[in-house]
Amino acid sequence: MKDQADRLRELALTVKQQIENEIYMNLKHTRVIAVSSGKGGTGKSTLALNLSIALSSQGKKVILMDADMGLANIDIMLGIVPAYNIYHFVQGQKSLREIILSHPTGIDIIPGGSGITELANLHREQLKRILVELGALDGEYDFMIIDTGAGISDSVLSFLLAADDVLVVTTPEPTSITDAYGVVKGLSQHHFAGNLYLIVNRVENNHEGVLLAEKFRLVCNKFLNLDIKVLGYVVNEPLIKEAIKRQTSFLNIFPQSVAARNIYDISSKLLSNDVGGDKREIQKYGGIKNFFKKLINFSKLQGE
Ligand SMILES: Nc1ncnc2c1ncn2[C@@H]1O[C@H](COP(=O)(O)OP(=O)(O)O)[C@@H](O)[C@H]1O
Ligand SMILES: [Mg+2]
User: Domain containing 153 — which CATH number?
Assistant: First the structure.
């Protein structure tokens, strides 16, 4: 029979466990990944969306933010018509929860819009409200994937510099490669401290992908003294356009295709160097709130 001391010990253990879990949830930060490219049309939105779905199907909670000011198109790709977007949240007309969409693919989406650029013009009190709401998402999501615009205009650069990781997408076209190199160079000049990843999209075959990625990695290493990690490549796949035509996600309707397998390989590789689940390294990622804080600071600096 258990005596009172035993019961007390059990109770103490349960309380200790609860406190530990609570601390863990408070300290856990979402891993924020910005998807970028030098040139438009390299497949940023396609990869941001399908990688989010791949990560989600591998058990991660993912929120995808459409931040391409010029061509916000995640909603078009999925055939959804968001009633509200980040503009309504920034302006205080809607709460963050009210603008987040849950998609049947398992991911959540923050519809883009011009609202993000307005962040720099808000008053202290308004910013506080916004950051408190955004901060509540930290720990709830494992990943925040951000689909940015092409190039390195000031506003795109702010997104990249504020993120934990930047994923550069290029195609094998020489102009796309030189423009991607321009992005990496821009990040290096601004002392980007996060992780840099490369994906070569629309390759003819495995060989072309591996070769190009390795060349790019070596050039960045030699001339910029930067370590860019190769995440993988995705073959050219006409079915990707077919999925967009049908306004549905490629990964869900053509999961057996080579390109879908390429995308799953990339998400596994992202997960293999993920430390978010490791309690000793929970503070490694800056998280969502910190991302927006940095973004606002950069935008303010640019406005001066
Ligand atoms: N691996 C691929 N194979 C074939 N077509 C692709 C591939 N990736 C993207 N595309 C197509 O290229 C076009 C541009 O892609 P998108 O994701 O919108 O690029 P971005 O967001 O960089 O402008 C789209 O029509 C898309 O269907
Ligand atoms: Mg796009």
Answer: 3.40.50.300
